[in-house]
Fold this protein.
Amino acid sequence: MQTLPNLLWLRSFEAASRLGSFTAAGQELGLTQAAVSNHISSLESQLGHQLLERTTRKVALTASGQAYLPAVRKALQDLAVSTAGLFGNRTSGSVTIRAPISESVLIIAPALPAFQQDHPGLDLRLLSAIWADTVLETGIDLEIRLGTGIWPNVRSEALGSEFVVPVCHSDLIKELKKPSDLIEKSRIHTLGFDDHWRRYFEELGLGTPSRSASVTVDTSLAAVELAAARGGVALVLERIAIRLAATGRLAIPFETRIPSRQSHYLLHRENAGPQKPAARVVEAWLRQLFTADDKSE
């Protein structure tokens, strides 16, 4: 037992390795960047091996660090589980959710106030992922992703079918008497959904029109904001469009919809520890939230 490193040093090493930054590790642990750096230097001195490569922008694991990290992480997790099992978890009401930025802003955030009224004791953290292949981190309790359902090291649970519909500013509705009027309007394209407009016009029986004036954005959130600013017509997920139409921010000019080739999934990490009771409550709410507008028959 006398050869075991200081627990604070191990926590700093695990956090810095996971977050790739002494500063971020310090913020998570409530320490200064210098304290985290000193902890890891002390740990390396005791072990006689360098664990992290330092650069001006980030830190990365050395070969020794890569070999040591799994054992450190498992030991800390086992200690946390045992402590919670024997003595209770004073932070059991804290749940961290991560979702694509558009879903975080347009679906989850608007529904949070009502959920918090029903569960006032829960401490929620909502994080946004910009890219679909964002690395899974151990600090995330629940993760929603939009895609095909195949990601490494996780089991994905489908949360209902998704459909796509057009949205635009309400002032534009009077100019859209029939679906073919869309051909002459500025169309908003979203990266990653490049075939939506082609498939939508095919569903209308109009073929693929020549490209009119358009803007391409990289998130549905940007597409929504552009449409709300009278910047054209966007194709977005129907569950998002329904909420925006209900608030009057945007209008749905035509009921024609097409199936999205991507769906929302709840990710379950392989070899994850026992789920906190609070996380189970939030997970059930997310399932309901992402299936409430499912109109597939």
Q: What stands out?
A: The mean pLDDT is 85. The radius of gyration is 24 Å.
